[in-house]
Amino acid sequence: MSQKHVIALHGGAGVNPDRDYAEVEEHLGVLVHVCEAMLADGEDAIDTVEHAVAQMEQSGLYVAGRGSAPNGAGIVECDAAIMDGARLRAGGICAAPGIALPIRAARAVLEHTPYVLLAGEGARAFAIERGMELVEEPDAHYRLPVGVEREETLRLDEGLAHGTVGAVALDRNGALAAATSTGGLLGKRAGRVGDTPITGIGNWADSEVAVSCTGIGEAFIYAGGARTLAAHVALAGESLDQAGQALLHAVARHGGDGGLIAVDRSGTVTMPFNSAGMKRALAGSELQTVVRIL
Q: What predicted TM-score, i.e. pTM, was given to this entire model?
């Protein structure tokens, strides 16, 4: 059994340098410590990333879960994905209304269906079947996340304000996992789906690397996303840093910005971004804990 373990978190690359993110920084610091302790105690990577993302969804501090804004039709639609690199199994939901913790529903898709992705009302019906917590009173449940102003939620795709949360982990057995969740672009058109729930684009984990992306989803889709990063490492022999930067350069060529977190089986981590900042945290058995916004 390997004794090394690593957890990395992101709370989205949609950062405004002029706003105060002290509450987010504190939350990430506590959460990364809890997740690192889980891994140290022998918790599996897949369970740890699910826990991390569920906590970020529940907090309402980020553009995911409680922090998701209504789309142009006034309805909150969420996307989420999770992947277990040890089993090469994934699950996701997209454009799903009224699910309190979307990452829990994504995990249920992984564990209890032969599918990879469920959408819209079908995803909600599945969540109900699995006994998931639903949002009964949207006005009371949802809140604006830290750093987001009301007018930004009314742009209907203008400016493409965005946010996402994610986690990647290496556990003591050498298994890798990734989880990602988002409320999508602020004021997005109803039914819009970005990169987050698409396995291999916004989220990926295999036996070599785990990746979670954040940013303008359309640009990440055009750039090839998380599995392209994994291919750069596995096939081109690039370092994790080189592969991460290559993906972000491709994202920029498609007019997008954002960032990503990735960890490989040796415990190496990269957390690059080409936006004004990215809410991020890192901890591990042989690493100094890092919590940063800019």
A: 0.96
